[in-house]
Amino acid sequence: MKISRSRSTAVRRASATRRLLLVAVAAAAVAVTASPAAMGAAAPVTDDEQLLYGGAYSDCFWHVGAIGVESYNIAYPDAGAHYWGAIYTPIPGATLRLKGQFPKARYASINAYDRLGAIQDAVADVQINPDPGSSNPFRVGIRRDVAKRNFTVIVDPDRPPGAPDPNTRANAPKRNTIYTEPAAGDTIRGIVWRVYIPNKGRDIRGGVSLPRPELTLADGTVLKGAAACAALGSETAQTVDPSALLLSAEVYDGLRYQPGKPAYFPALAGGKPNWRVQYTRQYLLNLYHPEADPLQGAVKAGQAGFFPNLHNQYVRNALNRKFGKIYAMRGKIATTAKTFTNPTGKWQASELRYQSFCMNESPKTTRVMDCVYDEEIPLRGDRRYLVITSRAVDKPKNATAKCGVAWIEWSPRGDGGTDTDFGWMQIRNMLPAASFKHAIQGTKSPGDEKKVLGPYLPDSKYYANKKAFEKLGCPAK
Fold this sequence. Notes:
By secondary structure, this protein is mostly beta strands.
């Protein structure tokens, strides 16, 4: 069952590009309700405002969201995930705890960010020790349906002992503290709770409530619920630097439409693949300035902006329909857990926690159009796959699981601007096992992608149209 489809009626982009204002609004003004049945609705957008508050299952603390393809589609979200954000001001001498339950899902985490979308710290589900009497169902050998699954995480307003590791693996040290200190002089804190691929039949939270804030003041007074939110100011409007999320139209067009560049730019001549790992924000945007790419010395810092997830690493390839209406990838996929239709068994060790293929627009909109994740991909011998992307009108008849093909929809909006042929394919690797050497997390410098990933970095080919692809038959060769 494919659960990751985004529709072209998803969230409209604001035409204003000067600022992104997070606005607290009355419940009557919110288009996305707490009902899962309403998840297809989009929050209203004005020329200079985008309403982030009051979405599905949000509350006075997790007041931003839910972010995802159905509602607030921004910052390249994985189509199989939903995020909720809390923006607040810590109280000197007070201790903030988050008390929750491990969701019934593939993955959950807490990431801390500054206003520019740079990661300060992150804690993955598997790292969190459960409360006494409970179990952590994300640890190997623990049943996924365990009844007692409570946890407590301390949100520390100080700086973490070390820099965030963008190559974090599944054996990261266990801890129940997340550190949130942003750049000097900024008193605001921002954290995000993520849930990927809830079990079949569970809501987007994974069948449990969002973690609840519990604030212990210096004098021992304990505040919960609305009282904790009021003390922290988590329902107060805050301004976020818009460049943390998307580029202005002027900046983007200056990158995309440079004098002398071919119509298919920034894709390479002949459709040659140009898989680029995410190192820094500047390296990411150097897709449009390849002459500025560092030949050596680029270091992953977890600071690429666009609010990335520390537990993922990404490799991206710029595409263009001028080379063909069907883009196909053939490669090998690592072992991953089977969770969507397997809610009861014990957690099994795997090479990756999660992998997905996502078709995005551009830094102008940071929208995801569509994804497929590991469980949705039909596999051949030796875990080989064939994944393709095209517009819906160009979808081949043999682009089905029965024919051994996973299909991803290419946005009819292209880059979300005037280049309707552009597409940005992104592959995600999450929390690889320490022993798995072919994850994106193993790359160390630009240009070593193929050397490190080997058969796990796909070979690419364009097909002129759906008839050309349909000649591959069923199963597709």
